[in-house]
């Protein structure tokens, strides 16, 4: 097991994040979604390593095996954690792949730190461009939805996570594509996350506007989204991101839910491997 110290400090200690590092070649960093951990990338890591890539997957602060601080769940801090990983491991020619909430880290990292250390970027079921419904983002999700998420987490986090996990993969429609055991495993990962981090991240992914960050993308970018995503609607996210990032490759997977890495694994992996080719 490997841990790296971030530049963030709480209670006089540097916050440590867990990561796994496999393979050789140009690095590919996998950034997980809420409320999971790097374990969600199990069925991508092996095929990417076998395809000749160095794969680094880390647990966001508050989740998985990383430290669980009380604060720092805003995207500027989360992007700083990613920058600490890239600089701490002295990485170059990096491809950063963000799933769902992780797409926010990809976007804010480029917005704040640029692309000098990057080779490519990928947004998978990503919350970018902007999830919240506003006057200038009419296809977004109403604030009341995120308020409901937070109220449910405060009342009975574990029950909320069970229902959310089913919606994550549109379970009733995809029982032939994902096992009940996998859905339960995802729940167990989410159940072990920081309750405070789980709560605070709802505000972060639900209300952060990444449109200005996306305008700074100047590297090859892949955007993957399922047209049956019931968690992150495709219009304010994948569709809008593709319209902002010039020259991006936009792949819509028909019938795919939010958690398409579990239900449409082979299709997602094929698109990723093809994109990563020089």
Shape category: globular
Helix content: 40-55%
Give a count of the beta strands, DSSP E runs of length 2 or more: 8
By helix and strand content, what is the structural category? alpha/beta
Q: Strand sequence of the main sheet, in spatial order?
A: 1-2-4-3-5-6-7-8
Q: Summarize the helix and strand pattern as letters.
A: EEEHEHEHEHHHHEHEHH
Instruction: Kindly provide the radius of gyration, computed on alpha-carbon positions and rounded to a whole number of angstroms.
Output: 17 Å
Q: Indicate the mean pLDDT.
A: 97
Features:
278 residues, eight-stranded mixed beta sheet, alpha/beta, single chain, 10 helices, 19% strand
Structure description:
The protein is globular and about 40 Å long. With 278 residues, it is an alpha/beta fold. The chain has an eight-stranded mixed sheet with strand order 1-2-4-3-5-6-7-8, sandwiched between helices. Strand 1 and strand 2 form a beta hairpin. It contains ten helices and eight strands. The protein starts with a strand and ends with a helix.
Task: Give a brief outline of the structure.
It contains ten helices and eight strands.
Give the arrangement of secondary structure elements:
Layout: E1 2-10, E2 13-22, E3 27-31, H1 42-50, E4 54-58, H2 75-88, E5 94-99, H3 102-113, E6 118-124, H4 143-168, H5 180-191, H6 195-207, H7 211-214, E7 221-226, H8 235-244, E8 249-253, H9 260-263, H10 265-276
Parallel strand pairs: 3-4, 3-5, 5-6, 6-7, 7-8
Antiparallel strand pairs: 1-2, 2-4
Helix pairs in contact: 1-10, 2-3, 4-5, 4-6
